Amino acid sequence: MIRRAGSAGTTALALLVLSCALAAGEAAGQVVNPHHSVVPPRAPAPASPALPAPATAAPATPIVAAPPKPVVHRPRPAPKEPPPPVGPLPDVKLTLEAPTPKGSWTMRVTNTGTIPVRLVADARLLTLDVTVRGGSKALRCELPADMRPSDDTERPLVLPPGRSYVEHFEPRLFCFGPRLFDALAQGSIVVGHLGWPNGNRAHSPYEVASIPGVEPELAPLKELISPPIGLPDESSPAMTDPIPARPEDPDPVKLDLYGVPAIDAQSSTGININVSLHNAGKRAVVTRFRPETLRFNVTGPSGVTDCRWVLNPVAPMPEFFTTIPPGGTTDLGVLLDAYCSDRVFHHPGLLVVRPELDTHAASGADIGLRTFDGRVVSTRVTVVRLHQGLKPPKLEHPQLEPLPAPPGAPVPEAPAAPSAPPAPPPTLPIRSQHRH
């Protein structure tokens, strides 16, 4: 009995020791095998190096084919113009004739040499240098670019030896505007240039050139220069009808009518003329100053035309009349094409417009008004430069100046005027018959 108890106690003691050892091993991190001695802990496996994260692939850029380069068709370079011939200069002279400062002038080109030449016979190529009396610098007058020929192909003319070309022109077409109008006065000096004075002298166009096949070959000229001329005086006749004074009125009416000095018009449409009526008297004047009492005398390429309002003045009404105080001025703007027919504007050029006021048929006596009933003609004109006419320009071939008749030659008679047609036979009057 004692041995069994001893063996049982021994077993219990061994189990107690073993459990204490297990507890101590767990606290020290060691693994205790109950069937073996204490086993040291395993060393931890070395950590494998971290692999880099795969890079995120960038979105693929679509490949776009480059557009084809445009084919540029470059113009072939123009063949170089041959240099002008080197030879003697043509003996051609330009002269100007100005009988009045403002009016028709004459351009004359004469071949004083012995060789025929080719001439661009066109007064539109003129340039005028005007130096006023006492001035030191010349004023240049020329047409605008759209009224000048651009080349030498429009009006060529063969100018034989000893022959001349003559053309008439209006200087105010070149010297346009109030300042240049005033320069065309007595004592001014004018020098003319015909051709292309500012062009390259080594290239065409040329004002005077040789004729192909004619020897000797002459050197071309870009321009002809005239000798200077002085402008004469010009008297301005009075254009106003005298206004008779009434017996009971010792202070007569003194009215002055005038328009703007110059109008530069591209076409005939919308040419607005502003007409002013000035009272130079000492008392107020009542008159009918309206479009129906105005008219215009127009001188231009188509001749002289009297332009009037299409309708006669209607019956008077008080609001139709204007009272102009002493020293006062009233203005009225009208369109020129409302008075003139299309014939006036057929061709480009200079239109000299003179306004008139005629109130003979527009009196206010019927409504008890004491009005001015008469006619006033402007002493100052309005100059209109018309760039483009209603009709296409005519390309007329220039002609040589006719040769003077030899001494003693009979003067050709003028053609007889056509005889008047026979008068129609008399007709019997026809009486109207009325039925009762």
Structure characterization notes:
The protein has helices spanning 2-28, 178-183, and strands at 31-32, 38-39, 92-97, 105-111, 117-120, 126-131, 139-142, 156-159, 164-169, 189-195, 208-209, 223-225, 229-230, 255-259, 262-265, 272-279, 285-287, 294-300, 303-308, 322-324, 329-335, 349-358, 375-377, 382-386. With 436 residues, the protein is mostly beta strands. A hairpin with a 5-residue loop joins strand 1 (31-32) and strand 2. It is flat. Mean pLDDT is 82; it is low at 1-5 and 423-436.
Low-pLDDT segments, ≥5 res: 1-5, 423-436
The beta-strand count equals 24
* Rounded mean pLDDT score: 82
- The portion of residues assigned to helices is under 10%
Rg on CA atoms, Å: 53 Å
Q: Could you say what the CATH architecture of the domain at 92-230 is? A: Sandwich
For the record, the CATH class of the domain at 92-230 is: Mainly Beta
* H/E element order: HEEEEEEEEEHEEEEEEEEEEEEEEE
CATH topology of the domain at 92-230: Immunoglobulin-like
- Shape, please? flat
Number of helices: 2
Main β-sheet, in a few words?
Answer: 6 strands, mixed
Helix vs. strand class:
mainly beta
Strand content: 25-35%
Can you tag this structure with a few keywords?
disordered C terminus; 6-stranded mixed β-sheet; Immunoglobulin-like; 436 residues; 2 helices; single chain; mainly beta; disordered N terminus
